[in-house]
Amino acid sequence: MMLETSITIALAIISLAMVLGLWRLWRGPTLPDRVMALDKLYINAAALLILLGISFDSDLYFEVALLIAIIGFISTAAVCKYIMRGDIIE
Q1: For the residues of 24-85, what is the DSSP string, one character each?
Q2: Distance of CA 85 to the CA centre of its chain
Q3: How far apart are CA 80 and CA 90, in angstroms?
Q4: What is the DSSP letter of 90?
Q5: Which CATH number goes with the domain that contains 7?
Q6: Which residues of 50-75 are buried (b: 16+ CB within 10 A; e: fewer)?
Q7: Quick one: DSSP state of residue 88?
Q8: For residue 89, what are the contacts with CB-CB under 8 A and spacing of at least 6?
Q9: Cβ proximity of 31 and 76 under 8 Å
Q10: Domain range enclosing 73
Q11: What is the pTM of this model?
Q12: Considering the domain boundaries, does residue 10 fall inside one?
């Protein structure tokens, strides 16, 4: 009972953080703000999937969260390199 309530509250908070991240992605005044908002969305999506995995008692959610975290890290690094140098592969 207590774990279910805690997971529900955490899901609501992370969902709110994702909405705020989408707002920053849409309204970000600069390109680095938008990149950081996208990175924040990847992290929040992974956290949301981990909470769903705990809630539904399924290992599949953890694997998908790990995949999203890896792809998010690589894409953030690639976008930052593109912003700084104008080219991803030198």
Answers
A1: HHHH-SSHHHHHHHHHHHHHHHHHHHHHHHHHHT-SHHHHHHHHHHHHHHHHHHHHHHHHHH
A2: 25
A3: 14
A4: -
A5: 1.10.287
A6: bbbbeeeeeeebeebbeebbeebeee
A7: S
A8: none
A9: no
A10: 2-85
A11: 0.86
A12: yes
In a domain? residue 90: no
Confidence of residue 74 (pLDDT cuts 50, 70, 90): very high
Per-residue pLDDT of 75-87, as tens digits, reads 998 888 888 888 7
pLDDT digit string (tens) for 2-28? 999 999 999 999 999 999 999 999 998
Say which amino acid occupies 60.
L
DSSP 89: -
Tell me which DSSP letter residue 18 carries.
H
The conformational region for residue 30 under phi > 0 = left, psi -120 to 50 = alpha, else beta, is beta
